[in-house]
Amino acid sequence: MSSKQILILDANQIQQKINRIAYQILEDNFDEEEIILAGVISRGYRLALRIEAVLSKISDIKIKIVKLELNKSSSKLESSIDIPVEQCENKVVILVDDVLNSGRTIAYGLGVFLNIRLKKLRSVVLVDRSHKNFPVATDFVGLELSTVLKEHVSVVLDENNEEDAVYLR
């Protein structure tokens, strides 16, 4: 595999994708009083924070952000969430991650919320590689990117928004 990296999205392009995703979320939930953004640690959570910042500027919807930690290498669901999952009951939950590869993370993330009643469960990814091994689909996607399995998509979301980039390696 080549060590060369190709810039796919720069900071401005990432912000444009986040803005568009935020508007799509608003359109899908315009009549809601509150939505929950469940960000998969760590880049999914950072992406959720960015989406929340845009949503709070363009709407009056109350947004709660939760951290979702998943053991992605386990063959069974091992997860933790920073609030009692029951607090999500009868609410709209939007699962947020940076890249959709096999679909395992989204599938495991959905599993966290299966035992409670939700109004809706949606998913967001910044980049969808279209290499799914699990039968999952995302509701809101920043960029669909066809890659070969040997390639790796790397998302860099700097806490100060200075070094944001998406690379193909």
TrEMBL record:
Residues 8-157 form the Phosphoribosyltransferase domain. Keywords: Glycosyltransferase, Transferase. It comes from the Bacteria. It holds the Pfam family Pribosyltran. GO terms for molecular function: glycosyltransferase activity. InterPro entries: PRTase-like, PRTase_dom, PyrR_bifunctional. The keyword Signal does not apply. The keyword Translocase does not apply. This is Phosphoribosyltransferase. It comes from Pelobium manganitolerans.
